[in-house]
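agent: user wants the full assembly modeled, not chains individually. Plan: 1) parse entity lines 2) check alphabet per entity 3) run joint structure prediction 4) return tokens. Steps 1-2 passed, two entities, 830 residues total. Proceeding.
--- entities ---
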Amino acid sequence: MSRALKSREALLGLAIMLLIGLIATRFPDFVAPSNLANVFNDTAALIILALAQMVVILTKCIDLSIAATLALCGMVAAMLDVAGVPMAVIVPLAMALGACLGAVNGLLVWKLQIPPIVVTLGTMTIYRGIIFLISGGKWINDQEMSPLFKSLPRMEFLWLPVLSWCAVAVVAIFAVLVGRTPLGRSFFAVGGNAHAAVYTGINVGRTQFAAFVISGALAGLVGYLWVARYAVAYVDIANGFELDVVAACVIGGVSIAGGVGSVGGAVLGALFLGVIKNALPVIGISPFWQMAISGTAIILAIAVNATEGRSRGRVILKSAEHVA
Amino acid sequence: MQASPSDRPVLRLSGISKSFPGVRALSGVSLALYPGEVTALIGENGAGKSTMVKILTGIYQPDAGTIEVDGQVTAFPTAAAEATAGVTAIHQETVLFDELSVAENIFLGHAPRGRFGLIDKAAMVAQARALLARIGANLDPTITLKDLGIANKHLVAIARALSIDARVVVMDEPTAALSYKEIEELYELVERLKAEGKAILFISHKFDEIFRIADRWTVFRDGELVGAGMMNAVDEAQLVQMMVGRPVDQIFPKRQHSLGAPVLTVAGYCHPTEFQDINFTLHMGEILGFYGLVGAGRSEFMQALFGITRPSKGACRIDDRIAVIRSTAQAIAHGIVYVPEDRGRQGAVKGLPIYQNVTLPSLGRTSRHGFLRLAREFALARQYTERLDLRAAALDQDVGLLSGGNQQKVVIAKWLATRPRVIILDEPTKGIDIGSKAAVHAFMAELAAEGLAVIMVSSEIPEVLGMSDRVIVMREGRMVAEFGKAAMSPEALVRAAAGIGERAAA
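--- prediction returned ---
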């Protein structure tokens, strides 16, 4: 992408380093490799969902139902486990269910042209409601889940747990998907200029549909990981998490107006929130400050975006074309 | 040629000049508007009419010239002071607020105030009702504007003009989007405004209505004043002559045209509302011009041909095989590409670098096993941008940073990279400077020489005459005339497009 974005990612990376450095001056334990690995592991779900949300936002949509999809798929995964379904089936099924839930969002946006924010606000409530219906409002807890179901995300190989490796794999896949496939390119084209995209033979609605399906499938994956990691499934898991996910995207430079964003930015945005969330209890600051800090970070990120856009200006002078 | 004024003009502009980078929009033109009279402003697209309206309404400030109100030299209006200067404009697509009520639209910015400086809604509605009655409009002032048709929106705009006590009313092609009956009602309204002593500037391409309602005429051509006078001392032929009659000062590329085999045959294309019964055959190496007034249905037809909308009837054959085009992707696969008129909205994707814009419709060719090959993308982009002599520092530069002319080149490069058989260019030189225009024309000739079939939609007569091998004229959604190279003349095109005289034969 453009140089401005690259420098923007560097800036965010620097901010995270600075933050970690600052914490390290008073709490050296925080920067121990094992603790940093813990922070990463704790942020893995946010990273995966931020990338999923990013492709949706790139196409000028938004998926507010992402956390509800996560919760529904997590509940279904837990119920399948209780019913004795093998793990090799549960995870693909959770992702397939997520993809279907995403497809519902996508079809409503594509075929009925309903604004995405309205669609996903509606399905967000519906999906939570379905969890209540299928679970009868009851929790599925630790004792009911099979040992393998719970331990899979925690299994370590090559120094990191499976949960972290999932995030790494998703980042790698997205780097290729977004940067190196025609679908990835059409996400940018559709969000950047939908009219122009139509003229180049891109089906705008179908591209948005694809983004919602990807988002749903990943929410399904995280649904299993989440329920297994915390060893509990109930109606309200990950309640409000969709806002953290959108926040990670915005901090990472993904433009809500569509067409602008990068994998690196979204990952760094998620890490930034992850570091703050994990550091504040260490420093002994109330978790309420966390909200204020992430709120400030969002506004700062948008302010940086706005000034970048403004400083460019129009190139009117012929001689300035080469300079630009 | 200046006619001696029968009385003092309410508004007189003299020696007005206005330049934009690369374009001289107006040079030393004058315009006088008289109370109780309709002055028709006539000219081709690009003659400077719109620039004049924008100066009158304070959107542009002229580089030179003076403005006199009642014989007193005053400052040029600014947009904010437009209302106080007493000039108000009614545009083709009226600029009002859809979500506000009729009364609120009429009084926005100068609503009657009641106690505590709050808007007195009852008084506002009552006054609005009185104003609407004055222009004979039977409208409920409390209705929301979006529920009204265009004709009624014009009425609201006119009521607004009366509410600010405007002395000059500018009507910029007010009938372009109206039905026959609505047009008649508008004429009646113009008569009422005349009776109230308003000075009216009426811009139109339709000669029948100019002769019906105007008292005076002023003709602009290429940003200069050609003449002005009384309507009763002039006829259609003279006006058309003044409007288009110019020495051919633009040089168009000379072409040895030898037409090849037929590429595209369109038979009986119809659309329920936009166009009807379009038939033609396009040959390799041919440049086919589509001329007509704005709103004649040319772009709408092209969009159907390109698969953006679907025709209700009709068939399209490519190389004598039926081609089913239901999406733009299919049109591109059949070798048809469309370079749209509105580059900003429909052309370049700002935010994406140049090379990614060029390869956007060709991603299938630049990828292998579903993965994009950056080297191939760059090679393809370089090949076509170099061919168009694109001035840009690097291919990974954001398209949004390029000038209009260069953005146009990126858009054209994007289409050429798909290796099309038929290329549709919609107003290819609109809004670009003369140097870039010549380059686009030379390039079109080159494409045709290579055997590409070119359809050029253009509202600029010199361009149509200079470039086309054949011209189809559309009016009100139908093909009304077709001219071969020998039969083309500016007068014939204007007459056919404006509906003067009989249907012309090829």
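agent: reporting back. The longest strand of chain B covers residues 23-33. Chain B touches chain A at residues 21, 306, 308, 327-329, 331-333, 338, 340, 342, 345-353, 356, 360-361, 363-364, 367, 370-372, 374, 391-393, 396-398, 400-403, 406, 414 (CB under 8 Å).
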